[in-house]
Write a structure and sequence with these properties.
The complex is a heterodimer.
Chain A (H helix, E strand, L loop, with lengths): L5 E9 L5 H14 L4 H21 L4 E9 L2 E8 L27 H8 L2 E7 L3 E9 L20 E3 L3 H14 L12 H9 L4 E6 L5 E9 L4 E9 L8 H13 L6 E4 L12 E8 L7 E9 L6 E5 L1 H14 L3 E5 L12 E7 L4 E8 L4 H14 L4 E7 L3 H4 L2 H6 L2 E7 L7 E6 L3
Parallel strand pairs in A: 9-10, 13-14, 16-17
Antiparallel strand pairs in A: 1-2, 2-3, 3-5, 4-5, 6-7, 7-8, 8-9, 10-12, 11-12, 15-16, 17-19, 18-19
Helix pairs in contact in A: 1-2, 2-3, 4-5
Chain B lengths: L19 H4 L2 H4 L10 H8 L5 E2 L11 H9 L14 H11 L6 E4 L2 H12 L5 E5 L5 H8 L3 E5 L8 H6 L5 E7 L11 H11 L4 E5 L24 E6 L12 E4 L2 H8 L9 H10 L3 H25 L3 E2 L5 E5 L4 H10 L2 E2 L1 E2 L8 E5 L3 H14 L7
Parallel strand pairs in B: 1-11, 3-4, 3-5, 5-6, 6-7
Antiparallel strand pairs in B: 2-8, 7-8, 9-10, 10-13, 12-13
The chains are: A alpha+beta, B alpha/beta.
């Protein structure tokens, strides 16, 4: 990402309520200085207030760092809690739920904070402590009109990265030609799309003719250190047999061919995706807000020669893994975890990542524990009560402790949707909550 | 959703983190280490195959020339305790004899990859750039980038190096132009006329590296011998390897040749004693074994004829140029084809990493291996396999 898009401000203080105005003042002034706008800065300040108070109660009088970072189209507040032996249980979103009193859920600091911002993320960095990150995006105007732009079929075209105005045209045209699940959510906001591209959040390639007509495009971004994900290809008024889609995809592949990417994921494929370049991962059900659910088939392409690896499983997941690996011709040694009555940590801890645009939340395990079933159940109830319809759980099969969550997932009616090879430290299984 | 990735690994033990952010240069942080293939026994276990036919690295299945084989067999174990010649003295003398150059015009390395590193170290510093093709042997690009130099990539034109585009890419920070002749993986080559025309236009301002790893396989009359052009063009540096035609890939030995003053500069960056003793002696024995070269060329010629006929029968487009390899366009993801072929005990090279998605490259080997390859490929690509 380009340096000018990032500005970071920092503050170090103790979790003492008397310092609350310092924390909130820092958040507000920093957010304004980084260009968030008054409304956004207020939301971020409120979320900061909730988190800071929560920390004052949970880990009183501990030194923490608060960082405020501007990233072009967003401002982030990050709480860094440098306590290695922190009791993470308190950082479950559901930590203070009283099963007997659902009304209490309204008062949860972390939940309240999550409502004020676009993203709340909690993660642990071994040896570094815990991080809570609040992200609030700037407000951008949506497209003012919805009239389609005329695009002629292009008999000859060439590919190149788009200019700023062409990025807006790509977003605008794609929004006209394709329904929402197949579009990046930010395409509704051309200014945000341009700012994100300038910040290096994604890359694009477009197909244009000599007159500058935009016939199509493709977009990709890093989903993690080893996986690139793409949207598209988007084709506008091009003939069925146009080679444009394949040319766009091949251009993308050439761009990432000699990077660290091990795979290319297309979770929301357009009908023009050249399937001969891909392998079917599996399907999941997408529940749009106030619309009928739809089944979406996700595709993947290995970018490197697979040399085999070992994955862990629980007996309840083994058949799914065996069948999927056989279908995908992926060489994996599957090792089963076994419970020999050893002592277990009583409390499990989960982390969440919210995608408000898609009404989608993904849970990640932070710690296994004997209460996994109840904890996961609490999460499900809380998330459903908060109106989340698409609930997923990602499990990294590299880590046997993550596999311990399988029975809890099964009992809470999560079902494995597909395996995403090499998406974590090892392969990742994506589970979906069936009754979402 | 769009937040940047934060590394998190719960499986690492608690320890004081090394301040890598401060210690590691930016260009290294952005660089990905090459992950070599796992050993055959491990791959066989994962893929459940009892044999593994290696058609992925353009190795010579005939093995080293008889003289080199004898050296390897006779190498006294006690000699393993003694340092080899630090600068491959005898081998350089023999190379000089063979090619009519002075021994100081040669520099021997631990495979041609090492001499690539020597050259880039000798001429490039941060901010400089090298120019090569986008779809060629990747090591020039990799070494340049992890050395902090920019690799400017010129698209191939009709599957060959585009001289004009390379010339147009030159600026005041351009230090080296890398050519692969014949090109791996397309097999295209520049003729004597094309090469000299290019060198004339460069006019000695930059170093031109000509990688001739597959030179011994080429029989075309207009194919240039770079070693013969060094006197006329002192900015020309030629790479050769013992890994391909002479089948010493396991011993890691290759060399470069150039103008004495140029090689003197490169030698300053070279690691002495990096080439082991048995490799030096085997290379010495292999050099100029015309009978071995003839047998290998005949095998490759027959193999190509067979493959082209079979690939045509299977309806698979292919690119067959010079060298002991053929590139094949497959109707599905090349890495999936790789995995399917591995389950049948045949190892090919995927070409996505060479920026040729949905192509594979196969070594033109002995008849039996090629028959097994064709049989396996046909089955892997049959509709029933894809159900």
């Amino acid at each position: 990402m380009e340096a000018e898009h990032f500005k970071t401000l920092g503050l170090e203080l103790s979790t003492v309520e008397a310092f609350l105005p310092v924390a909130t003042g820092f958040a507000e002034k920093s957010a304004l200085a980084l260009g968030l706008g008054e409304e956004g800065a207020l939301s971020l300040t409120l979320a900061t207030e909730e988190i800071f108070l929560y920390l004052c109660q949970t880990i009183p009088a501990q030194k923490i760092k608060i960082r405020c970072r501007g990233g072009g189209y967003f401002v982030q507040i990050e709480f860094a809690i440098p306590i290695e032996d922190l009791n993470l249980k308190a950082f479950n979103l559901t930590a203070r739920i009283d099963p007997e009193d659902e009304g209490d859920w309204q008062d949860l600091g972390l939940v309240l904070a999550s409502r004020s911002v676009d993203r709340l993320r909690i993660w642990e960095e071994k040896g570094q402590g815990l991080h809570l990150e609040l992200t609030k995006e700037k407000v951008y105007p949506a497209f003012q009109d919805t009239l389609p732009l005329p695009v002629p079929p292009l008999s000859r075209f060439f590919l190149r990265p788009p200019e700023k105005e062409e990025i807006k045209s790509l977003a605008r045209l794609a929004s006209e030609y394709y329904p929402s699940p197949f579009l990046p959510p930010f395409f509704r906001f051309p200014g945000k799309t341009v700012d994100m591209a300038a910040g290096g959040d994604f890359k694009t390639m477009v197909a244009v003719d000599a007159q500058g007509h935009l016939g199509g495009g493709i977009l990709w971004y890093w989903r993690g250190p080893k996986i690139v994900a793409c949207y598209g290809p988007f084709l506008f008024n091009q003939p069925q047999d146009s080679p444009m889609a394949e040319a766009l995809l091949e251009a993308l592949l050439q761009e990432i061919a000699r990077t660290q990417a091990m795979g290319l994921l297309c979770r929301y494929p357009t009908p023009q995706l050249p399937l001969k370049h891909f392998e079917t991962l599996g399907s999941f059900t997408y529940f749009p807000v106030e619309q009928e659910p739809q089944s979406i088939r996700a595709y993947y392409r290995h970018l490197q020669e697979d040399m085999g690896s070992t994955v862990w499983t629980h007996s309840d997941l083994k058949l799914f893994l065996q069948q999927t690996y056989r279908r995908m011709v992926l060489p994996r040694e599957i090792r089963e975890i076994r419970d020999y009555g050893e002592k277990r940590n009583p409390y499990s801890v989960l982390s969440t990542r919210f995608d408000r645009d898609r009404n989608l939340v993904t849970l990640y395990p932070l710690r296994p524990g004997a209460d996994a079933r109840e904890n996961l159940g609490d999460y499900l109830r809380l998330l459903k009560k908060e109106g989340w319809r698409n609930i997923f759980f990602e499990m990294d099969l590299f880590s046997p402790w993550q596999v311990e969550f399988v029975p809890a997932l099964t009992e809470n009616l999560f079902s494995p949707a597909f395996i995403l090879p090499n998406a974590g430290n090892g392969d990742v299984v994506l589970f979906q909550a069936l009754e979402s | 959703m769009w937040s940047s990735f934060k590394p998190w690994n719960p499986d690492l033990p608690l320890m004081k983190a090394v301040p890598l952010e401060r210690l590691v240069p930016e260009y290294i942080k952005n660089f990905e280490a090459y992950v070599p293939s796992k050993p055959d026994d491990v791959l066989k276990k994962y893929y459940g195959c009892s044999r593994l036919i290696r058609l992925n690295n353009n190795e010579n299945p005939l093995g080293p020339p008889p003289g080199a084989q004898a050296v390897i067999r006779r190498f006294p174990p006690a000699r393993a305790a003694v340092y080899p010649s630090g600068d491959s003295f005898h081998l350089r003398e023999k190379l000089a004899d063979c090619h009519g150059l002075h021994p100081d015009q040669f520099l021997v390395g631990n495979g041609a990859n090492e001499v690539i590193t020597f050259v880039i170290k000798a001429f490039c510093q941060q901010g400089d750039n090298i120019i090569t093709a986008d779809r060629t042997f990747s090591v020039y690009e990799w070494v340049a980038e992890f050395s902090g130099s920019e690799a400017r990539l010129v698209p191939l034109k009709d599957f060959g190096f585009d001289a004009q585009a390379m010339l147009e890419g030159i600026d005041e920070r351009t230090k080296i132009l890398f050519l692969c002749n014949p090109n791996n993986p397309t097999g295209s080559y520049w003729s004597q006329e094309e090469l000299t025309c290019f060198l004339e236009k460069i006019s000695g301002r930059q170093i031109v590296v000509m990688d001739e790893a597959y030179a011994e396989f080429v029989e075309k009359e207009d194919y240039p011998n770079g070693l013969d052009l060094i006197r006329q063009y002192p900015n020309l540096v030629v790479f050769r390897t013992f890994s391909k035609m002479f089948a010493l890939a396991g011993l890691r030995i290759g060399y470069l040749a150039g103008d004495p003053e140029v090689v003197d500069m490169i030698r300053r960056t070279a690691v002495v004693y990096s080439v082991n003793g048995v490799a030096q002696e085997a290379a010495l024995a292999a050099l100029n074994d015309q009978e071995h070269i003839h047998r290998t060329r005949e095998m490759v010629k027959r193999g190509k004829q067979f493959l082209i006929k079979e690939l045509t029968r299977l309806g698979l487009p292919h690119i067959s140029g010079e060298g002991n390899f053929i590139m094949i366009k497959v109707p599905e993801n090349d890495s999936l084809v790789y995995r399917k072929m591995m389950t049948r005990g045949v190892m090919i090279r995927t070409m996505t990493g060479f920026r040729f998605p949905n192509y594979i490259r196969v070594t033109v080997a002995d008849q039996e291996s090629l028959e097994i390859f064709v049989e396996a490929l046909g089955r892997c690509l049959s509709p029933s396999q894809n159900d």
